[in-house]
């Protein structure tokens, strides 16, 4: 028997960690409800999961829009019969200080990175309760603990995810719902690629940037989305039955020390 046989999982974000997590849960036997705004990525995920034999519903969703999240949850429940797992991975990563960040960009970051977690919980938790409980994992970041310069909006959202995770865990523990977060360091994702390209765009040496980013981590490399997906899968599984209200760092030792040498 696979570790997620009979389970139904909603995953937001169809690239990077979201894609890797959908693959891992599907490989474990879960039916997947995937929500993403990138239509090309949605199409690729739909084809990949379909070709693998997985049960999957991939929906074009702006996860900051209540009606779209509500409809995606409803469509998934109608197709598969319920909801057991939610993994919130969708995110935007604007750059800027509080002074340089436009208010609309600030609000977009809050709505996508934090608001989507509220929305999947708001519409999803009642369905999980009907199934007798479940597990939620929110993808935060080490930037919620110690941030770089020029990422005021992004870092703020990641700190908020830590707090919202604890609130959800406390509010819904007696309903059999466990809620945790993971905080990755530098992971090979489209967001990290954007950082690697910087102002050089298509001319950037992305692999050289990844090597530089990796050297900041004691392990000496950046992480892979599949490594984060394995941690998420553990937290979604019955093996993590006593884990709730906590954050789990997967950062190659990045936040274990201080930068002074």
UniProtKB/TrEMBL annotation:
Keyword Oxidoreductase: yes
Superkingdom of origin organism: Bacteria
Keyword Transmembrane on entry: no
Residues annotated as signal peptide: none
Sorted UniProt keywords: Oxidoreductase
CDD domains xrefs: SDR_c (cd05233)
Gene Ontology terms for molecular function: oxidoreductase activity
PANTHER family (UniProt xref): DEHYDROGENASES, SHORT CHAIN, SHORT-CHAIN TYPE DEHYDROGENASE_REDUCTASE BLR2146-RELATED
Family label: Belongs to the short-chain dehydrogenases/reductases (SDR) family.
Name this protein carries in UniProt: Short-chain dehydrogenase/reductase SDR
Organism: Mesorhizobium prunaredense
């Amino acid at each position: 028997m696979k570790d997620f046989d009979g389970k139904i999982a909603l995953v937001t974000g169809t690239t990077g960690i979201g894609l890797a997590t959908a693959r891992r849960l599907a490989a474990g036997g879960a039916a997947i409800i995937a929500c993403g705004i990138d239509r090309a990525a949605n199409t690729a995920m739909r084809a990949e999961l379909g070709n693998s034999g997985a049960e999957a519903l991939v929906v074009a969703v702006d996860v900051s829009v209540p009606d779209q999240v509500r409809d995606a949850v409803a469509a998934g429940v109608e197709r598969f019969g319920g909801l057991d797992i939610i993994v919130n991975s969708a995110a935007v990563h604007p750059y800027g200080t509080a002074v340089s960040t436009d208010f609309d960009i600030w609000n977009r970051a809050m709505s996508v990175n934090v608001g989507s977690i509220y929305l999947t919980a708001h519409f999803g938790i009642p369905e999980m309760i009907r199934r007798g409980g479940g597990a939620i994992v929110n993808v935060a970041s080490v930037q919620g603990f110690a941030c770089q310069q020029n990422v005021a909006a992004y870092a703020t959202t990641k700190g908020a995810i830590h707090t919202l995770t604890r609130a959800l865990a406390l509010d819904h523990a007696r309903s059999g719902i466990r809620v945790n977060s993971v905080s990755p360091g530098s992971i090979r994702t489209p967001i990290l690629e954007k950082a690697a390209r910087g102002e050089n765009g298509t001319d950037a040496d992305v692999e050289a940037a990844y090597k530089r980013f990796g050297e900041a981590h004691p392990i000496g490399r950046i992480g892979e989305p599949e490594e984060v997906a394995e941690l998420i899968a553990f937290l979604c599984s019955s093996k993590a039955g006593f884990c709730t209200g906590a954050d789990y760092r997967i950062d190659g030792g990045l936040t274990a020390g201080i930068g002074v040498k």
